[in-house]
Amino acid sequence: METLVLAGVPINKISLRRLLFSKTMLVAYVLLALALFGIYELFALRYMSGAVGAHAAGIDPTAPGLREAMSQAVFGTVGEITRTQPWTLLIANYMYMIYTGSGVIFLVALAEMAHFHIVGKAAAGFMVAGVALIFAGLFTIATDLNMLNMHWMLLTPNFNAGMWLMLPLYCTYIPFVFFEIYLLLTNKRDWARRLALPILVLSIGVDLIEYYIQAKLFSMNTARHLWTEFPLLTFYFIISAFVTSLGVMGINTFLVHRNKPEYESLMNRIRQAMLFFVFILGLYEIVGYMTVDKDWAFLILFGPFSVVYFAGYIFLTLALPFLFILRPGKPVLTVFASICVLVGGFFGRYLFVYGGNANPMSNRFGTGYERYDFYSVAESFHYVSPHLGEILIVVGSVGVAMIIYKLFDGLFSVGNFREHY
């Protein structure tokens, strides 16, 4: 393909039609359309709900749920992440995408420093995939905050709010990653390897700071005291992110490089790394539930979440992938393992988020700790099923990642192996 060079970067001369209307982009547009419909659904739920309508007010104007809904709609707290509201599927997806994307970038930077040449040849594509996942996560959290809420957060900034805590992190981290991609695209391998160490540190920093932000936002909620009292949970986020990150790298390798000579060697590296981290994650799961809060552990292991935990998480993330990648020489089994860890890893985030909601407690002055439910009478077990709008936004976030990756690939051919050692 004919190219032009700008600032040392070869840019493909590609028509807008070919760039924006390929089969992959059309699929991504469909997913993005689902997300936009989901945003509309959540917007209608938050600001046009019957709970705050004239009919509901006429039937029972003193209902506690009505008062609470009207208060949130009027004062603009709907959408912001607070300790008095249950987490949502949007939060689970945000955590999943951010940790997985930063995990991909970390592993590629680590491979650069370790001189794994076969990974370095595909480093540009992997880095772009990691960035694409991070932007998909930011898209998800932006829809949860919603534009009206972010508008008031800008007018009346509260620097303890989640958005303000996250901005400095990503304004530093993402430019570093983009510069690393630039070095890879311009064949500056020595400089790319030198920048790998700061990228490595920043990738871990993303995980640790995200953990701190979540702890800060929810530290006053008894049901979520795991963040502040069990720092070993930090390793769960990091190790499980490495497993799902290798799943992303495995699927990316299959889709982009399966017809290239280096395909089997690259898949074997991914298989070896996945086998290691699946084993480490399995050990952590065994030890972890012996050290965390026993009530929370009982809820996950033997309570209402037990089927999802064992069938959706343990089987898909640990057992099945371990069997697939135990023996070398069959890249297709690594692809199956990659699909399993991606699905199972999401179940893991879902369980952690919704398990944290299961028995929420507040500590209002003069009443002590008390159970509460969302807009209704208190219940002993708290679970709000994901709304259709949330599900559509999560599905649509995959489209965001696809669009970003395909735009980079169309313009810069990041999916090519780069021979510059």
Describe the structure.
This protein is mostly helical. It has a single domain (15-48, 87-412), classed as Formate dehydrogenase/DMSO reductase domain (Formate dehydrogenase/DMSO reductase fold, Up-down Bundle). It has helices at residues 16-20, 23-47, 54-59, 64-75, 89-113, 117-121, 123-145, 147-155, 162-185, 189-218, 226-229, 233-257, 263-291, 294-302, 306-325, 331-357, 388-412, and strands at 3-6, 9-12, 361-364, 368-371. A two-stranded antiparallel sheet has the order 1-2. The chain has a two-stranded antiparallel ribbon with strand order 3-4. A hairpin with a 2-residue loop joins strand 1 (3-6) and strand 2. The protein is globular. Residues 76-84 and 360-379 have low confidence and may be disordered.
Keywords:
single chain; 421 residues; mainly alpha; Formate dehydrogenase/DMSO reductase fold; two-stranded antiparallel ribbon; two-stranded antiparallel sheet; 4 strands; 72% helix; globular
